[in-house]
Specification:
Elements (H helix, E strand, L loop, with lengths): L13 H7 L6 H7 L5 H32 L7 H16 L1 H33 L2 H6 L2 H43 L1 H48 L1 H6 L3 H53 L5 H42 L20 E8 L9 E8 L4 E6 L5 H9 L6 E6 L2 E2 L5 H5 L2 E4 L10 H5 L8 H10 L3 H6 L17 H13 L5 E5 L7 H15 L3 E5 L11 E6 L2 E6 L1 H7 L2 H12 L4
Helix pairs in contact: 3-4, 3-5, 3-7, 3-11, 5-7, 7-8, 7-11, 8-10, 8-11, 10-11, 17-18, 19-20
């Protein structure tokens, strides 16, 4: 049987988590709704569970009957014993196939929920704003997608493997006992409220400690992710001990919170065991007293004790597994922090963009980040013609990269607007618009795959000829030839097996192969040596020809051929013109150029 989830049926849980308002006492209701559309499979699983679990209920009855038969020496019916043995043997043997079928149907449903939740989280992360991602550490997101979803899937299984069996055990044990001896059944009745009171008494303390432990797990997950990424820097500066001490400090906090959680769970479990074992011994003494009065047979005592043991085992199991329930509920709360977030991309336009000519207009644009009152862009006005190459220069913090982020649609102006080919950006469909862009960021973004995979990322119809042409244009032929598997060589996480210049050229090749209408280059040649920079600039001339191009550059020598250079300072345009015009003006751009020449040792 194929238990892999059918990806066509993966449910979208985002709306469900929002509607059910996780965190308002609706965890069980939401957990049930997670299986919507799979109730048939769960029902079949429940039927097979009842069959496979039936020996637990029949063994006390058969045992009691056998003892009653042999305890009456004057009227022993040996055939009845053999019949009992045959019946219980068949019931026990059927446990194997019914257990497999029960697990198969349950696992199919629970794994479907697990895959659906992770898929929904990934889709939600793709729609959340860049601000949201910049404020939340990637390690925390990984913890939610991996650890918390696994805890929810475990919770669902615990409900089927523990809660429902315990409930059925209580119903069967109480029903059989109540029919035979209502007085003994009173002991069964008392167990339920005592168990409920114990859970209620420990619930808040266990929930609080689970929440503290979960948040600390997210913290250490984020810190370890950063630590691994910083190993080259840490090693280069001899800061190994500092980084280890920082991690050790967080691990000590985690150890403390984990220890307190373990102690709370141990106290909870042991208290339940003591209480219910005393109940069992009390019930045994009562049954023995009834037998001494001639009101109960020895076989009945064994039967009632068997049911009482089953009942106490179920209740104790619930007591012991409740911390796992609390962990699962806390994980549902953790996942809801993402799924209930309304911090999505601000642009929600619907006009599809079939073609981009490349004309842009910034109209009295102001922008500030949400956590500050200082504007990054102030009264920013700029018109760009289709096919124009515009370079932005200025000191760090002048707002250059923010302009590029505005063009991509990462941020929406606080005031003013941005027009694309005369259409306000808040009206267009960003997904279709971005297909016409090619972005080469300052920090090269590569993933663990081959050179081919990284260059053709997201494209499915790239011919080998076109790929090789792009390789040639970005001067990557020698790099590819020197690698053991050529274009199919794995480059390691973040392209760690390549030099900085090689990684940057792969990023430029990725832009070239898309044949975009608009090109955005944020310090695209910053990691290249002089020879590589010259080679890539030759390729870039082919890329930008006939395309609207935006360049952010600190090395002013790289933008001599730009149609227009925009000099920015504190979010405003202070100068604009060609390289020659700005040098002749001898203003802000001229001063920047002189500073760079002096720094390079050129007089």
């Amino acid at each position: 049987m194929d238990n892999r989830p059918d990806t066509r049926l993966l449910p979208n849980f985002e709306k469900l988590f929002i509607e059910d308002r996780i965190g308002h006492g609706r965890h069980l209701f939401t957990l049930l709704r997670l299986f919507r559309g799979m109730y048939g499979g769960l029902f079949v699983s429940l039927l097979f569970f009842i069959l496979k679990h039936s020996p637990i209920w029949l063994i006390p009855i058969i045992t009691g009957d056998m003892i009653n038969v042999v305890s009456n020496p004057d009227n022993i019916n040996i055939n009845r014993i053999w019949i009992d043995l045959a019946i219980i043997s068949v019931v026990i043997a059927q446990n194997v196939p019914t257990q497999l079928l029960h697990t198969s149907y349950l696992s199919r449903s629970s794994r479907q929920v697990e895959a659906g939740l992770r898929g929904t989280l990934v889709r939600k992360l793709q729609h959340l704003s860049i601000s949201y991602h910049s404020e939340l550490r990637s390690g925390k997101l990984q913890s939610k997608v991996l650890r918390d979803v696994e805890a929810i899937e475990t919770l669902a299984k615990q409900m089927m493997y523990v809660f429902i069996p315990a409930l059925l055990n209580v119903i069967v044990a109480f029903s059989v006992t109540a029919v035979n001896n209502p007085l003994v059944a009173l002991f069964f009745v008392l167990i339920i409220p005592v168990g409920a009171l114990m859970i209620f008494g420990f619930r808040k303390n266990i929930q609080r400690k689970n929440r503290e432990f979960r948040k600390q797990i997210e913290e250490i997950s984020g810190q370890i992710t950063e630590t691994v990424e910083m190993i080259p820097l840490t090693r280069a500066h001899g800061l190994d001990k500092v980084e280890i001490e920082k991690t050790d400090s967080t691990l000590m906090d985690l150890r403390g919170k984990g220890y307190r959680l373990d102690v709370a769970e141990a106290l909870f479990g042991s208290s339940g065991w003591v209480m219910f074992t005393l109940f069992q011994m009390g019930a045994l003494a009562f049954c023995c007293w009834l037998a001494a009065q001639g009101k109960m047979t020895v076989g009945d005592i064994v039967m009632y004790q068997g049911f009482f043991g089953t009942l106490l085992g179920s209740v104790n199991q619930l007591i012991n597994v409740y911390p796992q329930f609390a962990k699962g509920f806390e994980s549902m709360q953790s996942v809801s922090e993402i799924l209930q977030s309304t911090d999505v991309e601000e642009y929600q336009g619907t006009i599809p963009v079939m073609h981009v000519q490349g004309g842009f207009s910034f109209e009295r644009m102001h922008f500030k980040y949400r956590d500050t009152d200082q504007h990054v862009l102030s009264d920013f006005n700029l018109d760009i013609r289709p096919g124009e190459c515009v370079a932005f220069v200025g000191e760090s913090g002048a707002g250059k990269s923010t302009v590029l982020n505005m063009l991509i649609g990462y941020y929406k102006p606080t005031r003013g607007r941005l027009l694309v080919d005369g259409v306000p950006m808040d009206q267009i469909d960003l997904k279709s618009y971005r297909k016409h862009l090619a972005v080469v960021p300052q920090n090269t973004v590569l993933f663990h795959g081959s050179i081919r995979d990284n260059i053709t990322y997201g494209l499915t119809d790239v011919s080998e000829e076109k790929l090789l042409e792009v390789i040639r244009m970005t001067q990557l032929q020698e790099v590819v030839a020197s690698l053991p598997d050529g274009l199919d060589t794995k480059i390691g996480e973040h392209g760690g097996k390549l030099s900085g210049g090689q990684r940057q050229r792969i990023a430029i090749a990725r832009a070239l192969i898309r044949d975009p209408s608009v090109v955005l280059l944020d310090e695209a040649t910053s990691a290249l040596d002089n020879i590589s920079e010259y080679q890539v600039q030759q390729a870039m001339r082919l890329l930008v020809k006939g395309r609207t191009t935006f360049i952010v550059a600190h090395r002013l020598s790289t933008i001599r051929d730009a149609d227009r250079i925009v000099v920015m300072n504190k979010g405003r345009i202070v100068e604009s013109g060609t390289f020659a015009e700005l040098m002749e003006l001898q203003g802000a751009f001229y001063k920047l150029q002189q500073m760079q020449m002096e720094y390079a040792g050129i007089s």
